[in-house]
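Teaching assistant's notes for section 4

Start the section by putting this record on the projector. Ask students to predict, before seeing the second block, whether GNAT family N-acetyltransferase will look compact or extended. Collect guesses on the board.
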Amino acid sequence: MNIEYKINASVSAEQFIELLRQSTLGARRPIDDRECMEGMVKNSNLMVSAWDGEKLIGISRSMTDFHYACYLSDLAIDEKYQNSGVGKKLLVYTQEQLGSKCKLILIAAPVANSYYEHIGFTNNQRCWVLEREQCISK
Ligand SMILES: CC(C)(COP(=O)(O)OP(=O)(O)OC[C@H]1O[C@@H](n2cnc3c(N)ncnc32)[C@H](O)[C@@H]1OP(=O)(O)O)[C@@H](O)C(=O)NCCC(=O)NCCS
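Reveal the predicted structure now:
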């Protein structure tokens, strides 16, 4: 398999949506909300992508300051290419873009929970999420 990895290559909302569909992560992302999906690809500041020719087959999409924290929002591999090391390589290339003290932080999809442990992430019980419909009282 000749897979090419690219740092911050242009990825269209359509390519991103199609990949999420093909990876199963589409079930957990707002793929029918075009504006949101376009905002996701346009406004992340670190995106490593994997290509089989012209076909996008994997992505690692993050927001980071490159020094302290890197928030990995999506890691998705086309099902046909899963379990062949693409996910791991995308994370290696993501980490290579970061400073030596910069942590990778993410919320795992249920099916991928054991994956992160398997490749060396540690679990943090103090991860918190504020849903958009929740308001902090002033
Ligand atoms: C989870 C996912 C990103 C893993 O990527 P991948 O390219 O398929 O996995 P890799 O080839 O990098 O696997 C590396 C190792 O992890 C293991 N592994 C793969 N998926 C696993 C899983 N779900 N649970 C535990 N271990 C897993 C592999 O067997 C391999 O082990 P080895 O190195 O000992 O041989 C990919 O399967 C995927 O896109 N899943 C659906 C979308 C999703 O849930 N993404 C995560 C969002 S947080």
